[in-house]
Fold this sequence. Notes:
One of its GO terms (biological process) is positive regulation of receptor signaling pathway via JAK-STAT. This is PRL protein. One of its GO terms (molecular function) is hormone activity. Keywords: Hormone, Secreted. It comes from Onychorhynchus coronatus. It is a single chain. By secondary structure, the chain is mainly alpha-helical. It has one domain (12-90, 105-137). The protein has five helices and no strands. The chain has helices spanning 12-15, 20-46, 53-82, 106-109, 112-137. Helix 2 runs antiparallel to helix 3 (53-82). The model is unreliable at 93-104 (pLDDT under 50).
Amino acid sequence: xxxxxxxxxxxxxxxxxxxxxxxxxxxxxxxxxxxxxxxxxxxxxxxxxxxxxxxxxxxxxxxxxxxxxxxxxxxxxxxxxxxxxxxxxxxxxxxxxxxxxxxxxxxxxxxxxxxxxxxxxxxxxxxxxxxxxxxxxxxxxxx
Length: 143
């Protein structure tokens, strides 16, 4: 996986030990790391005439969801900053330069099944980290 070099906590219990700002930054880094590979993947599958239309549609839908999720996390980050929950140190950190990840051809050269496996792995991480962050910010949710 092209994101394997990113240091990420394995499991919810380790994610709970990371400060909110670092966890938010990690979520943004993971989402940003998938922006370009998903775009290439969409282009790749569009050229496969044998794929059913619903597969093409699903791939585009996933790509759009990642973009929307990243935008949503950025908005939540701004709100957290304005409320003083986290500092403004995350500004500009969602760009590909701020992630510290250079997107290589590794993601483009993976087989479709490996690509989907890696995407699913990172999606599960983001989901888990968002749950931890939500529980820290809004403890009234009985997490």
